[in-house]
Design goal:
By secondary structure, this protein is mostly helical. Helices cover 73% and strands 3% of the residues. It has helices at residues 8-27, 38-55, 67-89, 92-106, 124-139, 142-156, 166-208, 214-232, 237-258; strands spanning 112-115, 120-123.
């Protein structure tokens, strides 16, 4: 017969695991997509928390005296889960920046679309890059890496033992800001370079043939060349996505190390 009995300590320990997992699912890439119903996210969090709870050898609950002490443990686990998921999810802003730079060069920066994954307004190229990166993420099983990472955090950061040092966190953010613009510019570099060359050619034509109205002709030419460049260079997105995926891994690792 299966024994379903458990103590209050086991329940409290399981709830702390559930808090970290649910906060991670709320902020992590792929798992935090707005189209996914909240019941599925909650059920997935409970299932993953139960698997981690069963697979752990020792259930050592940190000592606390009052309800406020346990509330402090819950808050600490929530911040740990949010920080780890946010460390990877913040890298999605690289895709949005690359899309905005490409849209400004092409001349369609005024076009905005609703990104159903984040429920935010984004540019045309940004949405294209966003969906492409998410598809590559699913094909390469990067979401499996996120699951393994959050599971391993329970060995590196035991329950209730997370330490938040502002110096380490600021170092992580500063390191990310250094790579933020560089990676985004690498992604949109073909479009930017092509449009810059097109602008140079249009400038020469204005000087050589002043009777041509380049203000009316140049918009269509830049739009056509920009979209053609996007179509031609769409094949380099898998290699460009490696920069973003590596940055996600680096940010998650740095966030975990800053709390150990």
């Amino acid at each position: 017969m299966i024994d379903y009995s458990f103590s209050y300590d086991d329940l409290e320990f399981f709830l702390l695991i559930f808090v970290r997992i649910s906060c991670f699912v709320f902020t992590a890439p792929f798992f935090s997509i707005q189209n996914v119903p909240r019941r599925i996210k909650a059920g997935w969090s409970v299932l993953l928390a139960y698997i981690i709870y069963v697979s752990m050898d020792m259930h050592v609950l940190p000592q606390y005296n009052t309800v406020y002490g346990y509330a402090a443990l819950v808050l600490k686990e929530a911040i740990a889960g949010l920080a780890i998921g946010f460390g990877a999810n913040i890298c999605n802003s690289i895709i949005n920046l690359a899309g905005r730079l490409a849209d400004m060069e092409i001349g369609i920066s005024m076009v905005s679309l609703l990104d159903p994954t984040t429920r935010e307004q984004s540019g045309f190229t940004g949405v294209l890059y966003q969906y492409s990166i998410f598809l590559i993420m699913m094909v390469t099983n990067l979401h499996h890496y996120f699951i393994r990472a959050i599971v391993e955090t329970f060995d590196l950061i035991p329950i209730g033992m997370a330490k938040f040092e502002s110096d380490k966190i600021m170092t992580v953010i500063s390191r990310y800001l250094d790579d933020y613009v560089i990676i985004a510019f690498r992604i949109c570099l073909p479009v930017v370079a092509t449009i810059m060359l097109t602008n140079a050619v249009l400038g020469i034509l204005v000087k050589s043939a002043p009777q041509i109205n380049m203000f009316s002709v140049g918009i269509q030419i830049k739009l056509f060349i920009g979209l053609a460049t996007l179509m031609i260079t769409i094949g380099v997105l898998p290699s460009a996505s490696d920069y973003i995926f590596n940055e996600m891994k680096v940010m998650m690792t740095a966030m975990i190390q800053s709390m150990t």
